[in-house]
Amino acid sequence: MIPSGSEHPGDTHGDDTRKRGKPALAEGDRFGDCTIVRPLGSGGMGQVYLATSPDGTQYALKLLHPELEHRGADMKRRFLHEAEFLMTIRHRNLVEVFDAGEDPELGLCYILMEYMPGGSLGDMIAKNGRLPVDKAISYISQTADALSVAHKQGVIHRDITPDNILFTADGVPKLTDLGVARFFDEAVDVKLTMDGHLLGTPAYMAPEQMMDSHHIDARADIYSLGVVLYEMLTGNRPNEGSTVMGLLTKAIKGEPLPDVRTLRPEVSMSVAYVLSLMCAPKPDDRPESSSVVVDLLSRAEVGGLILPDAADKPQTAEMPKQEKPSIFSRLFGRRKEGAK
User: Fold this and answer.
1) Is 339 buried (19+), middle (13-18) or exposed (0-12) by CB count in 10 A?
2) Where do the DSSP E strands lie in 17-121?
3) Is the pLDDT of residue 122 over 90?
4) Host domain of residue 52
5) Could you tell me the CATH number of the domain that includes residue 297?
6) Tens digit of pLDDT for each residue in 207-230?
7) Are residues 167 and 233 in the same domain?
8) Are residues 47 and 140 in the same domain?
9) Is the domain of 176 the same as that of 312?
10) Which pLDDT value is given to residue 201?
11) pLDDT value of residue 274
């Protein structure tokens, strides 16, 4: 879709500009067939611009972080191969990828994606605080359904945050940056204040991902999705204010998240229980797939989920630690003792 070569009228110092950390493109610049309208944002993964094609179609153009360039030609080939594969994955709740490649003039890899004018879930939480319970469950269920398609194709997201869930003009949530994060384990968007307080994506990472990001599976995404659900329900991250070292310590100890009902009592016990499953410290205690998460949330929302005995429930920060076997397989249709 974007032919090789880019035009930068009046700019003959693209490489120097990137080294100084300034935007590689400016309003009115051409990138292949597209014209740059304005920057949309930036982060550890790269810079994103609003761009228009000659027929007026709007796109989000992401120029990936120069860190990828510094890792050599083999890494670029791997990324481009992965990007081509990601273009084949389609779901109503995944931001569509239309094109990907390497710009020969800038020396940067790019991704041309569906433009999402409705902002991000992060923006929504920052503006409104906690969300209605039914809306939060709907957003997470739709995102989990999209993840199930990706997971079946062997793609792990690795960086699920409110900022990576975007909205269309009519409010449909879509997950973005699918599959990109694994190429940036060393350049992930981690921002620290001077006193070491965490402001970036590790706040959403599963314990096993905090300790070894190279050996994770779909259950790490399920954990991150649970943290996002917790934030939507309470308006706060479960480990708000924790330092990177503090998060690592909790990961090593296997500490569970606080009980969501302590901050949002109107959340049903069923929904709180599913959330505790999603954010269980041990991967084996979480739902085995994103499609199971969708089913669990659907049952919990209508009161059709039969809870296990209190002693069998996964730990929360409000419950004493107990060594119990996994009860996940007994969630569906389990009858209480003595029921006929």
Assistant:
1) exposed
2) 30-31, 34-43, 46-52, 58-64, 97-103, 108-114
3) yes
4) 14-114
5) 1.10.510.10
6) 998 888 778 899 999 999 999 999
7) yes
8) no
9) yes
10) 76
11) 97
The tokens for 205 are 């990472």
Whether 31 and 141 share a structural domain: no
The larger pLDDT score, comparing residue 44 to residue 32, is at 32
Do 176 and 153 lie in one domain? The reply is yes
Residue 95 lies inside a defined structural domain of this protein: yes
**Which long-range contacts link 198-204 to residues 24+ away (Cβ below 8 Å)?**
198/239, 198/241, 198/242, 198/243, 198/244, 198/246, 198/247, 200/44, 201/159, 201/161, 202/244, 202/247, 203/227, 203/237, 203/239, 203/242, 203/247, 204/159, 204/160, 204/161, 204/228, 204/237
Quote the percentage of the chain above a pLDDT of 90: 47
Based on the fold, state whether residues 167 and 110 are members of the same structural domain: no
List of residues 6+ apart from 13 with CB closer than 8 A = none
Same domain, 131 and 245: yes
Nearest Cα to 243, choosing from 206, 281, 186, 192?
A: 192
Catalytic amino acids? 159
In the structure encoding, which two tokens stand for residue 93, read together? 């709740």
> The domain that contains 37 carries what CATH number?
3.30.200.20
Q: Which of 114, 146, 166 is the last residue of a domain?
A: 114
In 164-217, which residue ranges form alpha helices assigned H by DSSP? 207-211
**Beta strand extents in 44-145 (DSSP E only):** 46-52, 58-64, 97-103, 108-114
User: If you search the block for the tokens 């790019």, which residue do you land on?
Assistant: 110
Q: Is residue 67 part of a domain?
A: yes
Q: What's the structural domain count of the chain?
A: 2
Q: Which two tokens stand for residue 322?
A: 């107990």
76, 68 Cβ separation under 8 angstroms: yes
Query: What 8-state DSSP symbol labels residue 117?
Result: T
What integer best gives the mean pLDDT of the chain?
Answer: 79
Cα separation, 167 vs 174, in Å, equals 6
Quote the pTM value. Answer: 0.78
